[in-house]
Specification:
The structure is a homodimer of 101-residue chains. The first copy, chain A, contains five helices and three strands; from the N terminus they run ααβααββα. Chain A is α+β, with helices and mostly antiparallel strands. The interface between A and B is medium-sized, with 30 and 30 residues. Chain B binds a DNA duplex (30 and 30 nucleotides) through α3 and α4.
DNA sequence: ACTTTTGTTCGTAAATTCACGAATATGACA
DNA sequence: TGTCATATTCGTGAATTTACGAACAAAAGT
């Protein structure tokens, strides 16, 4: 046996929890919603709209990036953020199964 | 205007984030998954299965309860936990809309 | 070179989370 | 009225999250 299949908490539980954690703040929900509606956006757009400091926004974007839900493309001097399609779809799949949708 | 409709972050964003936060830990994912499969369970059952102290389990159950996703019914000396059907359905609805499922 | 624009990182503080064992509460049963 | 079984709450640490402004970095235009 190469993997421990006895474990109660699986990688799937951890992955789903990780995605849920990324979604566990209203600001990040807003950003994801925004991106799932409109192709992409610049973080400057978000700074203008959202009632938080740009450094705070940066942290939220970082959290979304590290969870794999978004990705940034440099368009100097801006950065264009989009959903990470692949992982977004994976997250959807996980939630769909989990929620029995 | 009685409510502030200018606000970028709405109650819906907050509610969804709140549900996501409840789901943001593998143990809690496991518990929810367990309950969505098998009607109900006793926290003792979970203590036996899960690799955490019962006090820690209690905290996770509390978090799920305070998010409204589960409810406990006393069957002395045990407590029977079930999904809170109403809120679980609401959460599903929110995620469904949000994820465009 | 200097300045402007854009965004990240740093430093810091307050709050929250997660974990544990010990202590407590509650009701059933002897 | 003890005692047992079951869970929660308390007390405590370590780690993480969230927020802010200040400082920094990078690249483009002047």
């Amino acid at each position: 046996m190469t993997t421990d299949n006895q474990k109660v908490i699986t990688e799937d539980h951890k992955k789903l929890a990780r995605y849920a954690k990324a979604m566990s703040h209203p600001i990040r929900i807003y950003i994801l919603e925004h991106l799932s509606k409109q192709a992409c956006c610049y973080s400057g757009d978000l700074t203008d709209i959202l009632p938080i400091a740009k450094s705070t926004l940066s942290q939220h974007l970082k959290e979304l990036r590290s969870a794999g839900l978004i990705q940034g493309e440099i368009e100097t001097p801006k950065i264009k953020y989009c959903l990470n399609k692949e992982n977004w779809e994976e997250a959807k799949k996980y939630f769909k199964l989990f929620l029995n949708l």
